[in-house]
């Protein structure tokens, strides 16, 4: 009988300890949420893989200016992030599109009004092996491949993942709901796409241009072994075909056909770090970072000219 009392007491103690730890963790989490402001606290920011470099740059500068702001950056494919928003696990994200009305339904039911800030325009780029003789590409050939039709020019299209935003963008443009399995492939990251293209002549990779203008140090050698293809723009080309590369100027004036706007989508429903980050990236200092990155800022920051000597 004595052993039964001892076992019961031990069980009761362990149960109390479990609930105590659980309550303590919950209280700590609630306290962190309560302590979050526009310039301090903790937040997880989800970012589309294809625009990870510029988001990392702005986050690093923002955190250095406001050291009490702890932003954890998580890079995922577009579809994965949107799915997370649908299941209430993602509240702030950097994407190349806004949510549809159907996708916003969860937040509408909670009476959470989104704060959406456009901060830049970028593009998706087509890359191929440096040995390629033809460095131009007709979009119609790309759409044929996406539709499962044979193409004399495009043999393979390689994306960074089945949930990537470039793949979603081209599927929409080609008006397909399902991609063919024999000519369109997906890998695990932009790094893998670039590595695959440099080792496989004839393959065409599809990535966000941000990775080309801001390559990570360990990717610079691989970038030198690829060529960026110039793409036709039937909307502005009259008569003889003209081809455009995704340069900053061609993105800005619309010469390059596959551009997209970049947004900070904030569904926190409060004055938190999401709003602070969005305010910074759309302010002059943040827009200068965007400009220096090779993308096109929404607002061209003013240039300060220092005049020396007497006038």
Descriptive notes:
- Helices cover 40% and strands 22% of the residues.
- The strands form two sheets. Strands 1, 2, 3, 4, 6, 7, 8, 9, 12 and 13 form a ten-stranded mixed beta sheet that branches. Strands 5-10-11 form a three-stranded mixed beta sheet.
- By secondary structure, it is an alpha/beta fold.
- It is built from twelve helices and 13 strands.
- α6 links the parallel β6 and β7.
- The chain is globular.
In short:
The protein has 12 helices and 13 strands. The chain has 311 residues and is an alpha/beta fold. Strands 1, 2, 3, 4, 6, 7, 8, 9, 12 and 13 form a 10-stranded mixed sheet that branches. It has a 3-stranded mixed sheet with strand order 5-10-11.
The largest sheet is: 10 strands, mixed
Number of strand elements: 13
Which of globular, elongated, flat, extended, rod-shaped describes the shape? globular
Oligomeric state of this protein: single chain
The residue-averaged pLDDT reads 86
Cα-to-Cα separation, first versus last residue: 102 Å
Number of helical segments? 12
**Helix content class:** 25-40%
Topology order in helix (H) and strand (E) letters? HEHEHEHEEHEHEHEHHEEEHEHHE
Rg over alpha carbons: 24 Å
- Judged by helices, strands and strand pairing, the structural class is alpha/beta
- Any low-confidence stretches, pLDDT <50, length ≥5? 1-22, 24-33
User: DSSP strand (E) fraction?
Assistant: 15-25%
